[in-house]
């Protein structure tokens, strides 16, 4: 990873924890976007699971230059830390007029971790317009435990977003986010290059923490999303508190005393 990276702020990481992804719109330079199509057509070299980035993506390779863009490198380091390994990478295409959408799913198989997460990078080398089958994402779904395609029967959820973006956009997503490629009704092939990164260090205070106590952090962590039911929606805030405690290294962090209250287990008093 390069030295000129741009680390995320605490408020940005809190937004990632709340909504499950961050968008970096149009940050990849035009020349790299143009090169991408040839690279995808030629096929990506296979990468064995768990390969360190420098070995997976040799110096000068397309993927290496992509992940070393300062804003990408900084965001990745802020979320998964230095020296992550590559889980896998793949180019997802939505063919013109293909007639169907991909079912809603999460990429993790069965993942019970509460104190670590993988980050998935999605890169779009071309502009994605409304009819091109942009990736559907359900904001705030990443901490709601499902197993891979359990959500496949859901057609639409309030607040879901179907990606439209300028060329050169990168999304960084928590591995648990519910998502799916939409139907491409256009005449254009839509490409998305995905790389999944596994952390190799504890994900504790990896970002620029100078704004850690800024009220914006709590505001981000307390956001709700339109598909949340009143009661289980609260569970999502609780899940975020637990994750923020780990990430910030502050075991007492709380919102409205929710986590503190339910962890109160007074010891049996000895009767004299
Ligand atoms: O093509 C897309 O937009 C999403 C595909 C994807 O992420 C997947 O198949 O897991």
TrEMBL record:
It comes from Streptomyces gilvifuscus. Keywords: Dioxygenase, Iron, Metal-binding, Oxidoreductase. GO terms for molecular function: dioxygenase activity. The keyword Hydrolase does not apply. It comes from the Bacteria. InterPro entries: Phytyl_CoA_dOase-like. Pfam families: PhyH (PF05721). PANTHER family: PHYTANOYL-COA DIOXYGENASE DOMAIN CONTAINING 1 (PTHR20883), PHYTANOYL-COA DIOXYGENASE DOMAIN-CONTAINING PROTEIN 1 (PTHR20883:SF15). Coiled coil: none annotated. This is Phytanoyl-CoA dioxygenase family protein.
